[in-house]
Amino acid sequence: MGIKSSTPYGKDFGGCGLAGIIDRSGKPVAGSMIVASLTSMKDRGNGLGSGYAVYGAYPDFKDSFGVHVMYNDAAAREPVEHLLKTKLQLRHAEPIPVKKIHAVPDPPEFWRYFVDPPPEAADEGEDAVDDLIVNIVMDINERIDNAYVISSGKNLAVFKGVGHPDAMAEFFRMQDYAGYLLLGHTRFPTNTPGWWGGAHPFTILDWSIVHNGEISSYGTNKRYVEMFGYKCTLLTDTEVVAYLLDLLIRKKGLSLAAAATVLAPPFWKDIQDMAPPKKDYYTALRMAYGNASLNGPFAILMGFDNGILGLNDRIKLRPLIVGKKGDLVAIASEESAIREVIPQPDDVWAPKAGEPIIVTLKEDKKQ
Amino acid sequence: MGNSITIDAQGMHYKILNQKIHDALGSGRTDIQLSHVNGQRYIADALKNDISITIDGVPGNDLGIFMNGPVITVNNNAQDAVGNTMNGGKIIVKGMAGDVCGYGMRGGKLFILKDAGYRVGIHMKGYKNLNPTIVIGGNAGDFLAEYMAGGVIVVLRMFGRQNGNSSTGDYLGAGMHGGTVYLRGKSDRKKIGKGVEVTELSDADRGLLKGIINEYADDLGLDAGSILSEPFEKLIPLSTRPYAKMYTY
Fold first, then answer.
1. In the annotation, is A232 catalytic?
2. Beta bridge partners of A359
3. What is the pLDDT of residues B113-137, one digit of tens each?
4. Catalytic residue among A6, A13, A16, A71
5. Scanning every residue of chain A, which has its alpha carbon at the shortest distance from the alpha carbon of B142?
6. Domain range for A183
7. Number of domains in chain B
8. Residue among A9, A339, A350 minimizing CB distance to B13
9. Span B206-235, mean pLDDT?
10. CATH number for the domain including A150?
11. A vs B: CB pairs below 8 A
12. What residues contact residue A170 under an 8 Å CB cut-off, 6+ apart?
């Protein structure tokens, strides 16, 4: 007998699956909802990676950075905690509650830390504080063996690992969480290892990314973000997209729509036919940020503190469907995953190739 | 009516659902109603029987894959790869459909009321009396009829989200080397693949198109007269071997 399947029906095909749900009114959506949506697409993955992002998960610590760390070896905890205590103010530390189940053998250890910047860093402003957090995340991932930061945003919880979406949800007790924005991903690894750190979402600060496809331009993109101090350490192409978005939006000040255009720019032949102001705009974006554009097939969902962005590659080599009902908007790889949780949507449509779908909260969380 | 059966697919895995369809056929049913379908793949996979299947809910990818006989009616949207490599029979979708529908289709009919996604009819082919036919009531995405080798695709641009003379998508017919696309209204020449010629319809074309549209309108409760009231353009390949010299010189 070969490898045991975790579904009773065997396993015979693939293609990652992704799902996102946002309540634009800011009301918490039960974690079980994203689990149901994602698990309906279980056949898209192969059990080698699933994960969730919950925005609004930690209302009691909403102004602190919530740092989730995965330890492949318990000995890695000491240097990580030492780093967090010396560089930041550690407000609270605890193991992430998990449920031991047969479907998840030999899991790593997971801890979460709620940290604030030291007063002198806070005086330098929000951007300096964010830079400090990014540097600490990179430092842990690069220098401390067997420790990986899974998420580092405010009021954001990310859970991921090796297993099917229902198994990961049970293991991480997704039923205990709720948030105004939820992302989910089931993985079918094609050219990088299926390991705990390689499951999606990939995150930095408040950005989180789930992705179906392949980033063929990974080498170019990786070298580009490395020039700005980001380190790609998680052995999976999608990681670089999280850093690209932090770089383009937070550091370079691009709008969400402009950043999406950088990732999936119009073809030169189409830019050529545009009228001057538009033509100049797209030409400038391509010239300035060519190294940040993504080649290869992709459908991605990006979560941020205030909403969600869905984007396809410019010739639409991966599926993406949007559905909405009232304030509730869902974006997924399959319409059935939307209907699993919104049975009668008011509207359902397939975005065009390279057309960003941006859905934000009606009231900005930061206001 | 004694030949009719309803299968409730609520929460059912596709393998169980397809087994139940096979069981129903085994007991002589010819009219199968599927209720609460949501995302089950491969429905009616490779069925050869002369039966009808009606689907309530959104069927999953590869609906009617390799099918050669049944008539499937979907009372809702469908997902990707409807009619993948189908050989005969008919699929009627009373909503929109996803990407790569009619992929490598070799026979039968695929009628979509609203929009269709990207790469519809890619690698579609015909042979002797097999003339696969796709009709899209709304718009199609990029790469419609890419590498098309045979059969007929009709795009109406009447019943989708954006109609009128909005584009049928870029790279229409790229690499096409057989078959015909009929487009209601005007094409955007910039978006048509290299090696594709836009011509007027002959009387024979008009006769063929009228037959197809009458059947489509009949199946979907539309008025064939108003569909045929606008002129169509005919897109055909300039060469049956567009890449003949690509690898040899």
1. no
2. A308
3. 999 999 999 999 999 899 999 999 9
4. A16
5. A315
6. 17-264+296-360
7. 1
8. A9
9. 98
10. 3.60.20.10
11. 58
12. A99, A101, A103
